[in-house]
Amino acid sequence: MASKVIHALYNDDDILMKAVKEVRSAHHHIEEVYTPFPVHGLDKAMGLADTRIAITSFMYGCLGLTVAIVMMNYMMIQDWPQDIGGKPSFTYLDNMPAFVPIMFEMTVFFAAHLMVITFYLRSKMWPFKKAENPDIRTTDDHFLMEVGVHDNEKELTELLWETGAVEVNTIEK
Amino acid sequence: MYTFSNRLKIGSFILMALGVICLATGFLSAPSTVEEAKEMVAAAHHDGHGGDHGETVAHHDEGHDASHDEHLLHQLQNRPWAALYTAAFFFFMIALGVLAFYAVQRAAQAGWSPMLFRVMEGITAYLVPGGIIVFVILVLSVLHMNHLFVWMDADVVAHDKLLQGKAGYLNPTFFLIRAALFLGGWIFYREYSRRLSLAQDESDDISNFKKNFRISAGFLVFYLVTESMMSWDWIMSLDPHWFSTLFGWYVFASMFVSGITVIAMVTVYLKSKGYLTEVNDSHIHDLAKFMFGISIFWTYLWFGQFMLIWYANIPEEVTYFVTRIEDYKLPFFGMLALNFIFPLLILMNSDYKRVNWFVIMTGIIILVGHYLDVFNMVMPATVGDQWGIGISEIGGILFFAGLFIFWVFTAMTKAPLQPKRNPFLEESRQFHY
Q: How close is the nearest chain A Cα to the Cα of B377, in Å?
C-alpha cells in the first residue's frame, strides 16, 4: 500500500460511478471506496472479484444435513431404538419422514449461521472493533474514493477534480 | 411476426399421427371379457396374480373370485382410457398453469415479464382444445364408456354407504355442470384478457391495460376456488373414499411449475430461432428461478401431504399411499428425484440459470417428472397394479404433445411476438439482473 493516499469526496452515486470508471481507465489503483449505502454495480465498476460466500453456504448446508442424519441415526436407530407410538425404528429409511423436518431445519441453520459468521470473519467485523471510517460524512451523504499515490500526486489530483469531486485531500498514512 | 416453421409443423403432425395409432392399438388390445383379461395377466406373470391390492370397492366373501376377476377386467379396460386421460390432463394443466402465471404477472404489475406476455398467451391458447378434450373424456365417463370414476357406477354406489354420503357432491349431473363452469370461466378470462392485450397495442391510452389488471386480479380469486374444486372433481374423485385437504394446492403447484417450465422452454426455442431478440438471459434467469422455487414448493406440498398421512397412519387415509408405495415404487419415488433433487442441484447455481440449454434440459426433466406425478395420481385408482408405461401411455403423450405444439405455435403466428404499448414494456426491455 502506498504511504500517501488521496481521498476524493463525491456527493452523488452516479458521479462516483463515472469517476471510478475514469480513474480505472487511467490506470490508477483504487484502494477503497466508502459509501453510505450499497451502490448498484460499484463492485463491477471497481473490477472486484465475485463473492464465493454462496458456495460456502452450500457446503455448510451439506454439513448441517450430515450432522442431522448422523445425530438422529445414532439416537433413534442405533443407540436406543424404542417403539414410540408404533413408528418403525428398524432402519433410518423406515422412519425417515419423521426426521425430515429436523434435517431441513438443521440444513438451513448451518447454512445461514455459518455463512454469517464467515461473512463477519472475512470482512473483519466484530463487537468493539474500531471503526475504519476515514471521514464521518461517508456514513451519511458523501462518497469517498481512496486512491494510492506513487509520485503522481499533482496529475492524480487534477484527474480527481475533473471527475466531479467536491473535495480532494492528500493524506499521509 | 412469427411464422410457424414447416419442420415443426410436420413434426407435430407426425407426433399426432403416431399418438393416434398407438392409442388406437391400446384401445383395440384391451380385453373385452373376463377370460381374455385373465389370459393377459397369466401371460404377463407366470406366477399368476395373487395378493391383495388396495381396492376401494368392498367385496363380499362369497363370489369374491368373480368380483375379483371383473375388477381385473375393468382395470385392464381402463388402461388406455387412463393413459388418454393422464396425458390430456397433463397438457391441459400446463396451459392452465401458464394462465395462472400470466394472471399473476398482470395482477402484480411485474416489470420484467411483459416481453413474454405473447408467449404466455400463445401457450394458453391450448386451453380451448385441451379443455374440450378433457371435458369430452369426462362426459364419456359419465356415459359409462369406461370405469375411470368408480362413483359414477350406480351399482357400486348402491352398495357403498360412503359414496351415498358423498352423492350430493359426486353425482354425474352436478359434476359435468361444475366442469363446464370451471372451463367456461378459465377460457372466458383467457380470451378476454388476450383481446384486451391486443387492443392495448393499438390504443393511445392505458384503459385496456387497467381493465386487464382488474380482470386478472378477479380471475385469480375465481381460479383459486375453481382450481381447488377441479382437483377434487377430476383427480381426487378417482379415489372417492380418500380425501386430502391440501390436494388442490398440490395439483396447483404441479401445474404451476410445469407451466413456467414450458414458458421458459418456448421462450428459449423462439429466441434461438431469431424471434424475441430483445429477450435476454436475465428473463430466462428469472423464469429458471421460478422453476427452481416452485419445484421446491411442489416438493413441500408433496411432503406435507405424504408425511402427515404417513405419520398419523389412519387406515382410511393411508391406503392411498400404501397402494402407491406397494405397486408404484419406482414412479412414486422416481418423480421425487426428477421434480426435486434434479432441479434443486442443477438450478441452484446462478450462472447455470442463464445457460439456455441447461434450462431446456432441466425443463425436460421437470416435465417428465410432472407427467409421472399425474400418472401417480390417476393410475393407481384406475388400473391398480396393472400399470405400465406402454403403448397407450406413450401414444397419449405423443398425441397431446403434437396437438399442444401445433396449437400453441399456430396461436403465436396470430399476433406480433412483442407487445407494443404496455406501460412496463420499456422496463421489461431493459430488464437486467
A: 20
| CA-based nearest residue in chain B for residue A87 | B311
Nearest by CB: A97 against B311, B348, B350: B311
Q: Least CA distance to A41: which residue of chain B?
A: B433
Asked if A97 and B313 come within 8 Å (Cβ–Cβ), the reply is no
User: Which pLDDT tens digit goes with each residue over B82-117?
Assistant: 999 999 999 999 999 999 999 999 999 999 999 999
Question: Please, which residues 19-58 of chain A have a Cβ atom closer than 8 Å to chain B?
Answer: 54, 58
CA distance B312 to chain A (A): 10
**How close, in Å, is residue B304 to chain A by CA atoms?**
10
Average of per-residue pLDDT values in chain B:
91
pLDDT in tens, B164-182: 999 999 999 999 999 999 9
- Answer yes or no: is pLDDT of B338 > 90: yes
Q: Is A104 on the interface with B (CB under 8 A)?
A: no
Beta bridge mates, B323: none
Dihedral, CA atoms, B237, B239, B240, B245, nearest 10 degrees? -70
Reported ipTM: the value is 0.90
Give chain B's contact residues with A (Cβ, < 8 Å): 303, 306-307, 310-311, 313, 348, 350
- A100 with B303: Cβ contact below 8 A: yes
Put simply, the answer to whether A58 touches B311 (Cβ < 8 Å) is no
Cβ-nearest to B306 among A58, A86, A97: A97
Residue pair A135/A2 in contact by the 8 Å Cβ criterion: no
Q: Contact at 8 Å (CB) between B126 and B407?
A: yes
Asked if B266 contacts B408 with a C-beta cutoff of 8 angstroms, the reply is yes
